[in-house]
């Protein structure tokens, strides 16, 4: 694989200070892995997680950021603040943010531009709903999201795309290998920097399916939700890279 794999965990709204023991077990797997390893805890734990992971091969990231650097935006966190807390990456445009907070492609794009300006690597999520897949619209929807969410001038700036079919997130359902391969190839050909940009698959990745998903040609890693909460599951997904 010409690109270094990335295994990223998205803790969503889970995790308390008492859960940071997770990183001890994961750090051992990360040290032995050819992949980049990332965990995105809730914002409340970010600085603590960054400190815990300092000196290990684990990076930490945010789950969202505001497009502005600072100001009157109660409850929001800026990309600069994430960077200041020790983040290297930020997940943007996750389908839960798009659905729960009405995030449009234009909003995701402005957040991605803010993330890049702050020195973060944005992980931009795209993916179709079940209805869109059933009506044969999966590729069209993903292409539209990509065109609207990618930063205006992404050349020479590192970013990551996560293909996450909405119907596969947290449901135990995974897209078929053929569908994943087809959409990842479609994403790859629309990227400004197709050779170096990593495309992750997300949607019920678990120890049992990680190896087959990660072996697909255009799959450069995984964005893992539920299975990233349990150190043994997450380490076994890390262990599936390059097997
Ligand atoms: C996610 O939320 O990004 C995700 C892929 O969740 P899960 O692995 O639980 O489906």
Structure description:
By secondary structure, the protein is an alpha/beta fold. 37% of the residues lie in helices and 16% in strands. It has helices at residues 22-32, 46-53, 79-85, 95-100, 105-117, 130-134, 138-149, 177-188, 207-214, 231-239; strands spanning 6-10, 36-40, 58-62, 89-92, 121-126, 160-163, 198-202, 221-224. An 8-stranded parallel barrel has the order 1-2-3-4-5-6-7-8, surrounded by 8 helices. α1 packs parallel to α10 (231-239). The longest helix has 13 residues, at 105-117. It is globular. It starts with 5 loop residues before the first strand and ends with a helix. Bound molecules: phosphoenolpyruvate (PEP). Phosphoenolpyruvate binds next to β8.
Keyphrases for this structure?
243 residues; alpha/beta; eight-stranded parallel β-barrel; 8 strands; 37% helix; binds phosphoenolpyruvate
Give the termini separation.
12 Å
Low-confidence stretches: none
Series of secondary-structure elements, N-terminal to C-terminal: EHEHEHEHHEHHEHEHEH
Query: Taking strands numbered 1, 2, ... along the chain, how are they ordered across the largest sheet?
Result: 1-2-3-4-5-6-7-8
């Amino acid at each position: 694989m010409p690109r270094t794999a990335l295994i990223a965990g998205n803790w969503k709204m889970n995790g308390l200070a008492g859960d940071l023991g997770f990183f001890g077990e994961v750090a051992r797997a990360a040290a032995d892995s050819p992949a980049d390893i990332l965990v995105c805890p809730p914002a409340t734990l970010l600085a603590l997680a960054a400190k815990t992971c300092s000196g290990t091969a684990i990076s930490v990231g945010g789950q969202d950021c505001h497009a502005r650097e600072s100001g009157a935006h109660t409850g929001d966190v800026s990309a600069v603040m994430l960077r200041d807390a020790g983040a290297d990456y930020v997940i943007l445009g996750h389908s839960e943010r798009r659905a729960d907070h009405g995030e449009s492609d234009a909003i995701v794009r402005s957040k991605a531009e803010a993330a890049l300006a702050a020195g973060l690597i944005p992980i931009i999520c795209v993916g179709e709903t079940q209805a869109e897949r059933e009506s044969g619209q999966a590729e069209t929807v993903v292409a539209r999201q990509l065109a609207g969410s990618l930063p205006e001038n992404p050349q020479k700036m590192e970013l990551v795309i996560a293909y996450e079919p909405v119907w596969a997130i947290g449901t135990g359902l995974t897209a078929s290998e053929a569908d994943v391969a087809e959409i990842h190839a479609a994403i790859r050909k629309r990227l400004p920097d197709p050779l170096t940009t990593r495309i992750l698959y997300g949607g019920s990745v678990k120890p049992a399916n990680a190896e087959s998903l990660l072996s697909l040609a255009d799959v450069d890693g995984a964005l893992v939700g539920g299975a990233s909460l349990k150190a043994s599951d997450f380490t076994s997904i890390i262990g599936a890279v390059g097997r």
